[in-house]
Specification:
The chain contains 17 helices and 40 strands. By secondary structure, the chain is α+β, with helices and mostly antiparallel strands. The strands form ten sheets. A nine-stranded parallel sheet has the order 26-25-23-19-14-13-12-28-27. A hairpin with a 3-residue loop joins strand 30 and strand 31. The chain binds ligand MIG. Ligand MIG binds next to loops.
């Protein structure tokens, strides 16, 4: 059951495709006071959702904000990351979903001020509010997902392993990475190009000095079964003679300040302008520039800096310099020193700047701050819509850093600038189901960690979880320890682990596609499946993956195994040294399971089938028909195995699904 309420005059986000008729607000469990929705939370009530955010799968006990933010310090004290995902689920006696549809900020106080209270506060009085009630948690999710439309479907090759780094600054460097993998028989399907490939960070250009003959590089990679995936940034360098800038200026495609002048910000290339992604004409103009790369044979992109990140605005910078001059002559004391210091530190992505430029969206002018959360969404949507036209037959890989519900139809998300910390591996695990609820199925984190130096064991453990995430990409920031798999002493373990991905691929793709086409989750918290089991509901570090298996990754330094909670009897399937070992059945309850570095363990449910392939060194090599079916139990249920060509844009559950039996 869905109820839709309209408050004030909301700005359309296009998050919901088919809107039920609006109802008149009636107080039930939720009370509305001064634009704040409040309700009590029962002692054992769990609150799920909010997509990409800090902290647990159960969001209770903290305060969150939906406010797309470029902040690379993903610490527990934060309240938002790159996405604005305003959907949550109350798992009390009744199961109830809540979606606040607005492009502006919303604050979710989920038992932070008072553990027994939830308060949802939209920043403006104009928004739509959806209440969903269903029998089960899965039911709430699928009703919500039907409302917001089918999730993005990437090409099959995008389920392969990818290597990335900010700092592959020449074609030669990229060739070395490819050779590093291929020579050592480490499986790989893609190499990502960060801003290094561009000429002075200009979108849709290629640095001719460091990447001469780019077309040849793409061809050489293709021959080795590797896709190159370039980055595209949200800001366009302001430079006379640069065709993208000139066209954007002439066409009036950039966001304007209050005086109607192009709003100038500083990002990677220095002074830049922001295409008005929300505007259909401007956004589509920008999106058609991807054709320059598509024409070269590129078939995947990642959209970055689209919160949008702003290092500084021209005006903000001027003000800071003026203020600094004032401070120069002062005796900086406890008040003035920190004010002085913060003034420079707070110059980036400042609320002041977000309030200083405008969009032309659906025929109206809006200040950016009113529609802030739509920028990354629309950048990605416009690109995706252009791809349908430019590549009608072939799917194109696309994922974004900033997002908002609605964008899930057009692309995936990566989880942004995490760090090489064990706690961020755990955060990656927890974010998967939360994002799935909100429609984001194609997602993953920077494996090994983006910021700070990784370690061999952290990378192996992170890859051992990454083998399950649809986006499986190792990425890191320049200046840190290199983290390509071939650089480590235990390269053979990396090979084993990455190899597991390719054995799992038929199952993963099948589960992904069923989740997408049926509006379901691929990763579920245990409480979704074992809702009556009090212990299962509290598990925050194990996940159900599809219909057949549970996973319980190791996320602690020096651990040689871990305690696993079994909500029902399950059989351990262990990937070890390139082999697949069937081990014992664990009864319901807790058990310590040995998981030495390099082993990947999955736990198979009774009477379910896990199909595994023989693997391969890239997706193309995997034989999706030559499967071994693993199972145990007396009444093994048939497995719905989904397959398609992995490339065309026609999806059909009926013709795609085949029943596997033992
Ligand atoms: O502000 O392009 O999240 O993945 O390597 C840094 C450089 C800009 C942020 C992305 C990261 C990428 C980096 N970018």
């Amino acid at each position: 059951m869905i109820r839709r309420y309209v408050f004030g005059s909301p700005i359309e986000t296009d998050a919901v495709l088919c809107k039920p008729e609006a109802a008149v607000w009636q107080e039930g469990r939720l009370l509305l006071r001064d634009n704040v929705f409040c309700c009590g939370l029962k002692e054992d009530e769990i609150v799920y959702g909010l997509g990409q955010n800090v902290r647990g799968i159960n969001k209770r006990g903290w305060i969150y904000e939906s406010n797309c933010t470029d902040d690379p310090q993903h610490t527990e004290c934060k309240t938002s990351l790159y996405g604005a995902h305003n959907f949550l689920i109350l798992d009390g006696e009744k199961k109830c979903g809540i979606f606040v549809d607005t492009p502006a900020k919303v604050t979710f106080d989920i038992g932070y001020t008072d553990y027994e209270q939830m308060r949802i506060a939209p920043a403006t009085p104009d928004f739509e509010f959806y209440l969903i009630e269903e029998e089960s948690l899965d039911g709430v999710v699928s009703t919500f997902r039907k409302l917001i439309g089918r999730s993005f479907i990437p090409p099959l090759w995008a389920f392969g392993y990818g290597q990335s780094r900010w700092g592959y600054d020449s074609a030669e460097g990229v060739r070395q990475v490819a050779a590093g993998y291929r020579d050592k028989h480490l499986p790989i399907d893609s190499i990502y190009l960060d801003i290094d490939y561009m000429e002075r960070y200009k979108d849709f250009t290629i640095n001719e000095d460091t990447f001469p003959d780019f077309d040849r590089l793409i061809g050489q990679m293709k021959e080795q079964g590797i896709h190159l995936v370039p980055i595209i940034d949200g800001g366009v360098k302001k430079e006379d003679g640069y065709d993208v800038y000139e066209e954007g200026k002439a066409g009036g495609y950039f966001c304007k300040d209050a005086d109607g002048e192009d709003f100038v910000i500083g990002v990677w290339p220095g002074k830049s302008c922001l295409p008005d992604m929300l505007n259909e004409e401007a956004g589509s103009w920008f999106a058609h520039k991807y054709k320059i790369l598509l024409d070269k044979g590129i078939d995947g992109f990642w959209n970055d800096m689209n919160e949008p990140a702003i290092f500084y605005s021209e005006k903000g910078l001027r003000e800071v310099f003026e203020k600094i001059d004032e401070y120069r002559t002062q005796n900086l004391d406890v008040d003035t020193f920190f004010a002085f210091q913060n003034m420079v530190a707070d110059i980036s992505s400042s609320p002041k700047d977000y309030g200083a430029f405008y969009h032309n969206y659906k025929g109206k002018r809006y200040c950016h701050k009113e529609v802030h959360n739509l920028f990354g969404y629309y950048m990605t949507r416009r690109a995706s819509e252009a791809f349908e036209e430019l590549s009608p037959k072939k799917r194109i890989l696309l994922f974004s850093r900033a997002s908002c519900i609605g964008m899930h139809r057009y692309g995936g998300v990566w989880q942004g600038d995490n760090s090489s910390w064990w706690s961020h591996l755990l955060m990656n695990i927890r974010m998967m189901p939360s994002l799935n609820m909100c429609g984001f199925l194609y997602t993953g984190a920077d494996l090994g960690g983006f910021g700070d130096n990784t370690t061999e064991d952290l990378l192996i453990r992170w890859l051992s979880f990454g083998v399950f995430t649809p986006l499986m990409r190792n990425h890191s920031i320049r200046g840190t320890r290199m983290q390509e798999a071939y650089r480590f002493r235990s390269m053979h373990l990396m090979r084993d682990v990455i190899g597991v991905r390719y054995k799992l691929l038929p199952y993963l793709y099948s589960e992904y596609m069923k989740a997408a086409l049926r509006d379901e989750m691929m990763f579920r918290p245990l409480g979704f499946v074992y809702g009556k089991d009090k212990l299962a509901r509290r598990v925050e570090d194990q996940l159900m993956l599809g219909t057949s298996i549970m996973i319980a990754p190791v996320y602690e330094q020096n651990a040689e195994g871990r305690t696993v909670y079994f909500p029902e009897p399950m059989k351990l399937i262990r990937f070890h040294g390139g082999e697949i070992q069937e081990e014992g059945v664990y009864p319901k309850g807790f058990a310590y399971v040995e998981m030495p570095l390099g082993d990947v363990c999955v736990f198979l449910k009774e009477n379910r089938i896990l199909p595994l392939s023989k693997g391969g060194e890239n997706v193309e090599e995997v034989d999706f028909e030559d499967l071994t079916l693993y199972c145990f139990g007396e009444k093994v249920q048939p497995y719905e195995y989904y397959r398609d060509d992995g490339e065309s844009r026609v999806y059909d559950l009926k013709s795609g699904i085949r029943i596997l039996t033992v």
